[in-house]
Amino acid sequence: MIPRFKPALGLQELKAALTWPQHDDVARFEKAFAAKMGQKHAIAFPYGRTGLMMLLETLGLKDKEIICPAYTCVVVPHAIVFSGNIPVFVDSQEEDYNMNLDLVPEAITEDTGAIIATSIFGYPVDLDKLDMIRQQYPHIPIIQDCAHSFAAEWKGRPVQKEGIAALFGLNISKIITSIFGGMVTTDNDTIAQKLRKLRDSRLASPSLTKSFRRLFYLLAVYPTFWPPLYGLINRLERSGFLGRLVKYYDENSIDMPSDYLEKMTDIEARVGIQQLKKYDIIINTKRHLAELYSRQLHGIKELQLPPIVDGATYSHYVPRVKTRETVLSKALDDGVQLGRLIEYSIPHMSSYAKSKSIKKHADIAEKLSIETINLPIYRNILKSSARITALWKR
Ligand SMILES: *Cc1c(COP(=O)(O)O)cnc(C)c1O
User: Fold this and answer.
1) What span, in angstroms and rounded, lies between the C-alpha atoms of 125 and 85?
2) Residue of the nearest CA to atom 15 in ligand 1?
C-alpha cells in the first residue's frame, strides 16, 4: 500500500524526541525557523490556528471582517471566529486553486480588518495582484498563510515576507512537522514582541500529560507508515471504523482542540529542529516529483493536471477528476491511496452556512472541493512513482 502522504521522520527525529529537555528547546526551534524562512522573528504555538487567533488579537482586531479563501483549511475561519472576528469568504480560482484576488476589492468594506492571502498546495499567491490591493488599501494588513507553501516564491519573492506576518502549520501532514504545532513569523519587532507577550500570558505551559501524549503520538507514527500495517489501518479506515478518529474537523461545529491554549512542547520543538535540516531536500523532491507527474500524466483525458509554477513548493500535487470516488477506490484496489485533501467549500459547510454574517461566493471552491484528488508526493515515492502513473495507463 502506497500511503497518500508520509512524514519525513527518521532516526534523528526519534533521537531528538527522546533526549532530555534543554529548557530552551522551543526558543531554539523558533530561532532556527526564523533563520530558515529569512524572517527576523518566529513565535511558536501549539497549533497554527492558535497562532492565527492570537495574531488577529495582537493586531487589535475585534468584530472585524477577515477576508480568507472559501477553499482553504477549515481551521482558518475557526481561528477567525475564536478571535472574535467574522470570516468573509472569497471564491477561489481554477488556475492554481488560490483565492481569486480580483474578487477581493468587492469583498472589502469599512469593517475589513485583514486579508489572509494563502498559497494553497504550495502555489505562491500572485504578489503582483496583492501589491495592487495593498496600494489601494494600505491600512488593511495582509497575513500570509504559508501552512502549505512554506517559502514558495512568486517571481523570486518569498511569499512569507509579503505581509505583516506569516502563518505556518507543522502537523505531520505538512511539509515539515513538529508532531503538532504552528509558527507565526514576522519582520516587525513590535508585532513580534506583542504576540510573544500575549502568548506567554494566555497560554499555559504544556502539562506532562501533553508531552507524553505527543511522544506517544510520534512513536505511533513510525509503525503506522510501515507498509503492511498501513494497509491494515487503511482497511479499517475504509470500513468507517477509524473515520471518527482521524477526521480533523466536524461539519457541524466551529471548535478548537482541547489543548489549543497549551504551549508547544519541548519534544515537538526538538523534532522541528531536526525537520528544518531536511527542508531543502523535501522541497527539491516535491518539485522533482511534480514535474515528473506532469510529464508522465500529460495527455490523459480523465485527469486535469495541476499547473507547474516557478517557485511553487508543491505541498500537494492536485489533479482534478470528474468521478472522484471511482478513481480513489480503483486506485486503492491497485494498492495506491490517493487523497482528497480539502473536500469542502467552507461557506457551504453547515457550521458556516448557518452563520448569517458571512458572505458567500464559492462556486469554484465548491467545484474544487468535489473534483480534486492528490497524488503521493514525498521522498520514498520516487521508486514507485511508475506504479502511480500506471493507474491511468492501461
Ligand atoms: C494546516 C493548515 C493551517 C494550520 O493548521 P493547524 O492544524 O492549526 O496547525 C492553516 N492554514 C492552512 C491552509 C492549513 O492547511
Assistant:
1) 23
2) 73
